[in-house]
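Issue 218. Parser rejects a valid record. Input:
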Amino acid sequence: MTELIIALDTKEKARAHAWVGELGESVGFYKVGLELFTAQGPPILAWLKEQGKKVFLDLKFHDIPNTAAGAVAAAARWGVDLCTVHAAGGREMLRACREACGETKLLAVTVLTSLDQDGLGEIGIARGVKEQVARMARLARETGCHGLVSAPSDLENLADLPPGFLRVTPGIRPQGSPAGDQKRVMTPGQAARAGATHIVVGRPITGAPDPAEAARAIIAELEG
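Output the parser choked on:
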């Protein structure tokens, strides 16, 4: 079954702790991104592990191979379960990161969900979104990455990937939720049917009047 990951999109430790407490045993996987990690550092990772939670560290490393691999190795020492790097960092960087990740599973970011065709063109990539995603996915597989991060609308284009290759999918919006800054979105059920192994949901749950109920509704949709 597709697994739900909750994005702790806040800079405040108390708020992150409160969300985890409210969601209780129904949710076992949390994403720590740039905002929370920059504000709180590794102690937030240690705290989540102490609560028995799985951790997706989403810092999207992109640097020279030695530097990126060192960052991945540091993340692995904190026991995170998933860690992201940009596939656009290239073959040498991806290989170095894969060698350094230990028990942590390495995910390659293909094309950010905030980018559409116009956005790609503005940064000098003339090929289409689907072609770019497929190229980045192929590079991730060839370098031994455990999976990738891509928009839900790209899942159909990745259907030929082996079953064990993770497809972690942000840009998830339950029916009726605003898209916000995401350009390519799907509902939880649509993403699950399209092959997502994990979906990442933030504001539709953490911003809901009852986060636990919002999470249960999404889990029920994934199970359906």
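Fixed in the parser; the record now loads. The radius of gyration is 17 Å.
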